Amino acid sequence: MGRIFKPKPVNLTIGILTKIPELLPETGKALEASFGTIDLKSDVLPFYFTDYYREEMGEGIRRQFYSFEKLISPDEIAIIKVQTNTLEEVIAASMKYPVKRPVNIDPGYLNESRLILASTKDFSHRIYLQHGIYAEVTLNYRRGGYESFPWTFPDYKSSEYQNFFLQTRALYVKKLKEGM
């Protein structure tokens, strides 16, 4: 019989989609209030991979990723997704923005071997966690880089995204060595 062990902590990452530039720092501050200090930010990247969000969010969508300093337990990701969905709803309900969905907040985590994303949508490759939240392995780390799967979103296959995750992974490994 295998022994049961507590999993290693993981590195929380959150991606934000918006066409409203001021929402990136505002949302970042709200996320820091909930999850602690952001220790790494990606560049603000154009989002041109799909038209999926266009009707709700408009044209000219941009994405920015954040890595958080404090490591989390992997089982926290479901609650974090519920919290980020609530933040999205609060921002939309403010009615301050000219689109139905001003921001999309996508939490996930990475460890040495993979990137996991949380979702409210069930599908064949997703596993139910709790509170209406599912998880999927989106990228696999192997031989110094990330590999995708047939279900990996096209933007997550891009070199810009993967470069951010490689930087985050290096930071994560350093945190583990330092006992953070």
From TrEMBL:
InterPro entries found in the cross-reference section: DUF4416 (IPR025529)
Organism: Candidatus Brocadia sapporoensis
Superkingdom as given in the UniProt entry: Bacteria
Protein name: GTP-binding protein
